[in-house]
């Protein structure tokens, strides 16, 4: 399947055009394609397709469009809480092929892909903006193509197209300069000068501005008889296998947009490669020359190069014969010499802002600075633009290996190449080292290098020289840290989680949050950690492996923080819950359910990882506590599979502790989860084991909990009589234990099951007793569940107004509790109550909200059932 965006939008299958719907359905496809595999939230997709003209029930219409696209084009359009996501091979989309060809400077082939106006036929404000942006990309590619052709002295063949495009783009000064240069080289200075005068007058009359300095420079050189460039040419050759970095190259822009740019990133991320690639693509913009210096900011064998030494070298390259003494005098002379010149200055591998500042020329030159540090002083005091590099996209990393090793060798072992890309983590230096080793052993299968990389990653990423040894490259960055930051780096290397929050890092480092933040900022500035979202920090996998090899003693501080804070969070949700104490000097406190749920949402993956890690380290009390404390959060979010994973770890910990009560609780919760997941035989085996274990204790509350779970499973499986039997048994156990909150919950469950059996009068008695007890105890979650039951009873008694009122009160409580799983169910019921009362508009609104939540939670069965009846 081929996708065409550079003209009328079309899809072709083996050369044949495929019809895939009307303009809005086509718009959905294009809006997803343009994200290159990134998810698009539903609201954003609606805005892109319709803008402010979205029809009623636009969401439902959108769902229909996506369903049809999946069917007609056989596309795997994924849906997740983050939105819709479509990933296709970039080579199948003409726009992405165009961009790849532009990156490779194959401009004629790239421009040949255009069939007309981009995204022709799509008509929202967002598509208009995208069309304008793509048009700018096309013009930029044409201008780059012209520069290449002029550098190759192909001015004669360029002249017709240059004349035509200057008529279409009369205000484009770069295009005007290209036409003037081509005319000059063709011996037609008179026409070149005449064209300059036309452009000058047009700019003055229509825009009130003078021609730009580059255009004036071309004009002046033609007047004196030579428009050819002069000056130093110090740039090293560009890296031959440069790939990717489309966004970063676009961020660098063109000369004159921002005069100073600081390119930052970790060692081996490709800062120099990016700077040189951009510089060579824009040579035509710097007719007065290019200066380059390696400032050796992180060189293991030499101190950073002093700026006065660099100034001497620059002044000599610029033709100065007498060099003044002293930094300030040399800097002043340097600024004087370069004033008015269109120069590019590349300051590579800077150690600090102080090293760079004396080397900054005046306002006519463009400066690229690369550094492992963020150089905040350069941004703050000198208006530099900051461009930070991240790892390469997997497709670009794959393309790098193709360029370096050849398409045939890469195609011979596709699975192995995918592994290489994954284990290198998109780090250009890692890819370069692997590729270099493979290039030096052309007869070796790539699998040999992949196996070594899998087993000993840092050993495999050593090609025998200091610049191709990843450990050495990382060590140079660590050596530049303060002692306390270096200690923090080593401790962060002991963390097993994908990222870490500031409070968790504070506990690990055993420092106040304010001090931990400053240490993390120093590591951020050195690009050894990344604050990928506010307040959360992560390391590149290979950086983390290096940090993990450093000597560090983390103690149990991080585990204690997670255990104690998870306990505090769980008790905020359920103050009546019995959980063992756990001490930590850094645990958090919570003042609301919303704060707890937000913390659980942010830390969930870390908690599961830390729980498994605690089990491995025989910290069984921590493994048990985290699993137990997560249970209510999982229920509120409908995360049954995650809850099962957590309980399996907790069960192993309880068995290691030899605690029958803890084991019985784990079996009880696993039983309910397995029944919900459709594995009833396994679930009932867990239920049976939980009852056996509880029989060994005199804990009536635990025994009542087992009956309660079995009752829920029986109802889930359709056996309402069995469910009622176990509900009554559980109620008796809770009363015997004197646990009023559990009694209130069980009263509601007995009432609910009686209602499901059609015994509404009895059901109402139990539920009214439950709501009174819940309200006296201040048990909001129990009140919400009971209101749902009372609403159900009212609905079936024909008291529709009462049903709506009860459901609305339950909705408000579940929102306050941030219990999205129950909220979705109650919204569906509220819609039913409105429909029964004849209010179809309100019914539709509640059903739509319930459907959206079901889909976000992955509850496909509920979503399908609801769609099937509305």
Provide a quick synopsis of the model.
With about 850 residues, this protein is an alpha/beta fold. Helices cover about 65% and strands about 5% of the residues.
Walkthrough of the structure:
The protein is α/β, with parallel strands linked by helices and 870 residues long. The chain is built from 42 helices and 13 strands. The strands form 4 sheets. The chain has a 5-stranded parallel sheet with strand order 7-8-9-6-10, sandwiched between helices. A 3-stranded antiparallel sheet has the order 1-2-3, with no helix packed on it. A hairpin with a 2-residue loop joins β12 (530-533) and β13 (536-538). α25 packs across α26. The longest helix has 27 residues, at 125-151. The chain is globular.
The biggest beta sheet reads:
5 strands, parallel
Span between termini: 35 Å
Estimated helix fraction? 55-70%
Detail the poorly predicted runs.
Answer: none
Report the count of strand segments. Answer: 13
Strand content: 5-15%
Q: Biggest sheet, strands in spatial order?
A: 7-8-9-6-10
How many alpha or pi helices? Answer: 42
| Gyration radius, rounded | 34 Å
The overall pLDDT, averaged over residues, is: 92
Quickly give the structural class: alpha/beta
* Gross geometry: globular
List its salient traits:
five-stranded parallel sheet, single chain, three-stranded antiparallel sheet, 64% helix, 42 helices, alpha/beta, 6% strand, 870 residues, globular
How is this fold's topology laid out?
Elements: E1 2-4, E2 10-13, E3 16-18, H1 23-33, H2 42-50, H3 58-73, E4 77-80, E5 83-86, H4 94-103, H5 107-111, H6 125-151, H7 155-168, H8 173-185, H9 189-207, H10 213-224, H11 246-252, E6 260-264, H12 271-281, E7 290-294, H13 307-317, H14 327-338, E8 344-350, H15 353-356, E9 366-371, H16 376-382, E10 385-388, H17 394-405, H18 407-412, H19 414-424, H20 428-440, H21 446-455, H22 457-460, H23 470-479, H24 483-492, E11 500-501, H25 502-509, H26 513-525, E12 530-533, E13 536-538, H27 541-548, H28 557-573, H29 593-616, H30 620-637, H31 640-657, H32 660-676, H33 680-695, H34 700-716, H35 720-737, H36 740-756, H37 760-777, H38 780-797, H39 800-817, H40 820-836, H41 840-856, H42 860-869
Parallel strand pairs: 6-9, 6-10, 7-8, 8-9
Antiparallel strand pairs: 1-2, 2-3, 4-5, 11-13, 12-13
Helix pairs in contact: 1-2, 1-3, 6-8, 7-8, 8-9, 8-10, 9-10, 13-14, 17-19, 17-20, 19-21, 24-26, 25-26, 25-28, 28-29, 28-30, 29-30, 29-31, 30-31, 31-32, 32-33, 32-34, 33-34, 34-35, 35-36, 36-37, 36-38, 37-38, 38-39, 39-40, 40-41, 41-42
